[in-house]
Specification:
With 519 residues, the chain is mainly alpha-helical. The chain is built from 23 helices and two strands. It has a two-stranded antiparallel sheet. This is Tripartite tricarboxylate transporter permease. Keywords: Membrane, Transmembrane, Transmembrane helix.
């Protein structure tokens, strides 16, 4: 393995400007993680217009810092206030808040910071080793392979993402439909423009993202955040004891592996990884009844897993050009805004971005470890800002940001429309993630599929004759049929046909419905 690009990447990150953007990104990420409801996806969507005036490497380093920094911030309110700041920190509430009630909030935050740092670092090393290998194999990809891979990405997120499967598939279908608006790139014919010149070039990614994740989240959270915030627990003795470290080391090791593995898969991500890591530790425990009542492994495992997953989810984005989740779809859009096409060629055409972003995560994780505990008091004070004050400021920034992209009033109207759509989707249990992901991948799927049909002379069976595309299509069939096969097998064994119940906490530590609802 040639280490020269990696060393050059550290040279890029250690430039004062890029170090500053890395620091800004992780601080904003921690702040967003602390504020319940907003989340990294909404924040990245709101900040997309700002990236126009920033060099590509600096912009992506900052946005990446926001993503994995939010995983740290969400822990603080989960432990101190029984209020998950980020969806991936929902499971941390179960034992973290129970530890805080026992006077061990410091130990919970300390082990969460240590586990997050270790999980993130392990995942970054895996990313550094695995990403170039995947990119090398991906050079064999052509239009048929990209069409099949894009379809697989949409299907995986639709079937294993948050919310009901049918609702996720409907949202993805709407996203694919929106991607067809505008002129046909092959024939020049206008589609679904209704005679509007503003729609002739299609709908831009920025208004959709800022509407669904920015304005939509603001409207939804204004309605939901009506409960009073609990008085935060006192933080003392932050550094965990030897016994705490001994009890947590296995959970941290397993959480690192689970987070890295599930983060790579489309639809996996930090939320699913934290749930699986918690369930694994509870199942392995000799005394599972401890979980939900202050088991330190119940904090260490999910916090390690969600940070590892946040990092490894960059692998399919940077190497294949396929976003693994909604936040990665926004990162995909940010790269396109900068004129950079994510995919197998990225490591060769833009090694500064490829290795600069990866190596910035080493620095970012160190910064987060240093700042996570000393800034707890600041974050608790921020929580006292009323949503009624914060929401209008955020909405104003959103509108100004989208206008500055194209100096178009029509884009403001689009943000309002998609903001209402995003609010209604959240209100009725639809996850906007599959819709955004399908929109991002829609153009890739359509253009690659049509190019493939031209190559095959109109014969769709040509997709099956190529080894890679045929294998991917077989995986698509397997993913589509897996729920049905599982149901049939359970029925034959005499077990319940329904899906297994999610991980539950004990009644003493169970959070309210509003706080556990994933964003």
């Amino acid at each position: 393995m040639d280490f020269t690009p990696i060393i050059d990447g550290f040279g890029i990150v250690l430039q004062p400007t890029n170090l500053l953007y890395c620091l800004v990104g992780v601080v904003i990420g921690m702040l967003i993680g602390v504020l319940p409801g907003l989340g990294p996806a909404a924040t990245i969507a709101i900040l997309l217009p700002i990236t126009y005036g920033i060099p590509p490497v600096s912009a992506i380093i900052m946005l990446a810092g926001i993503f994995y920094g939010a995983q740290y911030g969400g822990t603080i309110t989960s432990v101190l206030l029984r209020l998950p700041g980020e969806a991936s920190s929902v499971v941390t509430v179960f034992d973290g808040f129970a530890m805080a009630k026992q006077g061990r909030a410091g130990a919970a935050l300390g082990i969460a910071a240590i586990g997050s740092f270790i999980g993130g670092t392990v995942s970054i090393i895996g990313l550094s080793v695995l990403a170039p290998v995947v990119a090398g194999y991906a050079l064999d990809f052509g239009p048929p392979e990209y069409a099949a891979l894009g379809l697989l990405g949409v299907l995986l997120v639709s079937t294993v993402g948050n919310g009901g499967k049918l609702k996720a598939i409907i949202a993805a279908a709407i996203g694919l439909l929106i991607a067809t608006v505008g002129r046909d790139s092959f024939t020049g014919a206008e589609r679904f423009t209704f005679g509007s010149l503003n729609l002739a070039d299609g709908i831009d990614f920025v208004p959709i993202a800022m509407g669904l994740f920015g304005l939509g989240e603001i409207l939804y959270n204004l309605e939901e955040n009506h409960k009073k915030v609990h008085a935060p627990a006192k933080v003392t003795k932050v550094w965990p004891s030897r016994q705490d470290l001994s009890e947590s080391k296995g959970a941290i090791a397993r959480g690192s592996g689970i987070g890295f593995g599930l983060g790579v898969l489309p639809g996996g991500g930090a939320v699913l990884s934290s749930l699986v890591a918690y369930a694994v530790e509870k199942r392995r425990a000799k005394q599972p009844e401890r979980f939900g009542r202050g088991a330190i492994e119940g904090v260490a495992a999910p916090e390690t897993a969600n940070n590892a997953a946040a990092t490894s989810s960059f692998i399919p984005l940077l190497t294949l050009g396929i976003p693994a989740n909604a936040t990665m779809a926004l990162m995909f859009g940010a790269l396109l805004i900068q004129g950079v096409q994510p995919g197998p060629q990225l490591v060769d055409t833009h090694p500064d971005i490829f290795w600069g972003v990866i190596n910035s995560m080493y620095i970012g994780n160190i910064l987060l470890l240093i700042m996570s505990i000393p800034m707890v008091g600041v974050f608790v004070r921020i929580l006292r800002v009323r949503p009624a004050i914060l929401a209008p400021i955020t909405a104003l920034i959103t509108m100004l940001g989208v206008y500055t992209v194209n100096n178009s009033v029509f884009d403001i109207y689009l943000v309002i429309v998609f903001g209402v759509v995003g609010y209604l989707m959240k209100k009725f249990g639809f996850d906007p993630g599959p819709m955004v992901l399908a929109f991002v991948l829609g153009t890739l799927i359509e253009s690659s599929a049509r190019q493939s049909l031209l190559i095959f002379g109109g014969d769709p069976t040509g997709f099956l004759t190529r080894p890679i595309s045929g294998t991917i299509l077989a995986a698509i069939v397997a993913v589509a049929l897996f729920p049905l096969i599982r149901r049939v097998v359970r029925a034959r064994r005499g077990g319940p046909a329904a899906a297994p119940a999610p991980v539950q906490a004990s009644p003493t530590a169970a959070p309210d419905r509003e706080t556990t609802e994933a964003k």
